[in-house]
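Quick log. Single chain, no ligands specified.
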Amino acid sequence: MVDTGNIKFNEQGLVPAITQDWLTGEVLMLAYMNREALEKTIETGRVHYYSRSRKTLWLKGESSGNFQELVSIHYDCDGDSLLVRVKQTGNACHTGKRSCFFTPLVEREPLTGVEIIARLFNTIKERKGASAEKSYTASLYEKGLPKIAEKIYEEASELIVAAKKEGREQVVHEMCDLWYHTLVLLGYKDVELEEVLGELARRFGTSGIEEKKNRNR
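-> predicted structure:
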């Protein structure tokens, strides 16, 4: 049994829980837990919260299917807030966005690291239902896998040519084009970015030669 005695619930018996994607680090949402929600989360491995408006416990994803599988829970130095790291199914926000924090107030620094890829991929997936006349991404989805595969082949070829004959700047540009189109492919095949990152994480510490041997068995 996990000891939750160090968690300081407020006068309403609640503690704020910041929920974060376990791989990308993206902050998904902020909600509240009471002791029962926290214990249910630990017990079941699926994140539960307490609704302050409905005055009841709720399982994230129970109606939408967008469950949050628990990876870890940390509490801060004062014990009065939680950081919940999860594997998110679908979108976390009720608006259909991946994260509830999609409206910028101040942005002094650009996005960095995996967050850039995650934000781009979420935008690409949102274009699935857009007009093909107004969105290049939507036009690729409308034309289907043959067109997407053709573009990946084309961009990979251009990257190789750039690597052989062009400078660093052109290599960067062509790599961006290739990454973009491979993300479109992932979206088309309904493969989540977390699946790819998880597979990369699994391969850490494994020899590339050994990994390929195991894959071909």
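The chain has a mean pLDDT of 92.
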